[in-house]
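Q: What changes when iron/sulfur cluster is included in the input?
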Amino acid sequence: MSFTITIDKRKVLVDEGCTLIDAAADNGVFIPNLCYTRGKPCLGTCRVCSVRVNGKVTAACTVPVQPGMVVDVNEPEVAEMRKLLVEALFSEGNHNCPSCEKSGRCELQAVAYEVEMTASPFPYRFPKREREDAADHIFLERDRCIFCQRCVEHVRDEETGQAIFAIHGRGTKARIEIDVGLANKLTPEQVHAAAELCPVGCILEKGVGFEDPMGSRKFDVKSLRRRMLEGETS
Ligand code: SF4
Ligand code: SF4
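A: The predicted holo structure follows.
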């Protein structure tokens, strides 16, 4: 069944059961996001897709469309709030993009361009989180983790369904952990998929880096916005 909702004062036709973030993309409205992956359930951890729904701020990745819904995406106050959330993520980690192998393929960096962030107004925390290199083919640059939980939810052992990644600790003590035994069972394709799933340069494939020159990298070729509006997963 289809019905209409209003996004940024425009009536659009949407399908019942569709998540608001997808319905918006299908109607040409880009909503920045980091923890969401199209077609996969989402916990709404990053809140970067916050919009106003019927007057209340909510994460667009967690909301199914409802008839008559009124949504503000690009209203200045809501857009500014999303920008502040992205700026806070940069302050929470160590993000030195020019030296990062994920640069040009990183969703956090791509979203920062989309919200027109230049520098974070928040004090930088410069967290010290030890790197993890015990797995055969995966390296964790923990201080770039934004705790989106994509890896925790979607990277699992094929036989047992056990999670391979987990977040341990809380607040400033939180850090991403890896089950080395299970990680070592992943095929090269699965390792690559896990690294691609991570929206930042935290999960990295060992022996791989800076593969594409500037100008040919993922988001140089096609922006995050265009990918989303064309229905790609990221
Ligand atoms: S993870 Fe992304 S935002 Fe962080 S340093 Fe690397 S490219 Fe920059
Ligand atoms: S390692 Fe990557 S995918 Fe996993 S929680 Fe951190 S940022 Fe998200």
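Observations recorded in class: The longest strand covers residues 2-7.
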